[in-house]
Amino acid sequence: MLNERIKSVNQVIRDWAKDDPRIKLLTSMLGVGIYSAAIIIAEIGEIRRFVGAKQLCSYAGLVPSTRSSDAHVRHGRITKEGSTWLRWIMVSAAQRAPCASPRLAHFHERILKQHGKKTARVALARQMLTIVYYMLLRNTPYQERQQG
After folding, report:
1. Beta-bridge partners for 75
2. Whole-structure pTM value
3. By C-alpha distance, which of 71, 67, 86 is closest to 132?
4. Under DSSP, is residue 33 helix (H, G, I), strand (E, B) or coil?
5. Are 28 and 38 spatial neighbours (Cβ–Cβ below 8 Å)?
6. Phi, psi dihedrals of residue 142, rounded to the nearest 5°
7. What spatial distance separates the first Cα and last Cα of the chain, rounded to whole Å?
8. Helix, strand or coil for residue 110?
9. Rounded to an integer, what distance in angstroms lies between the CA atom of residue 22 and that of residue 80?
């Protein structure tokens, strides 16, 4: 009985994804599938409610915390405030993206050499969310740019 309910819910999600043009846009980005795109759309809602990509990244909790005193500013770990689901799905997508996209792999490799695996994954998730913001804002699919 539970398997039947799961099948019916999956079918509803696939039908909704088929009719939503934003899902098609997001799935053009390597590492983002139908279910990932559906979660991103459900969590973001209307993209124009965010002034910029930085606000969307802040909403997802993918920005560094900041502590300051007088002229000293220290940046720490990510804030983890905001949408837990959006942060989770972007970090999950960031795990798969370097294998499929040379552009994202280059970004990931550069951060990996400086800061390590976990930091590189979160930085890539933020980079991907920034790309998602502009894809949805401009209504254009993902395009792999040439390096150099």
Report:
1. 66
2. 0.85
3. 86
4. coil
5. no
6. -65, 135
7. 55
8. helix
9. 26
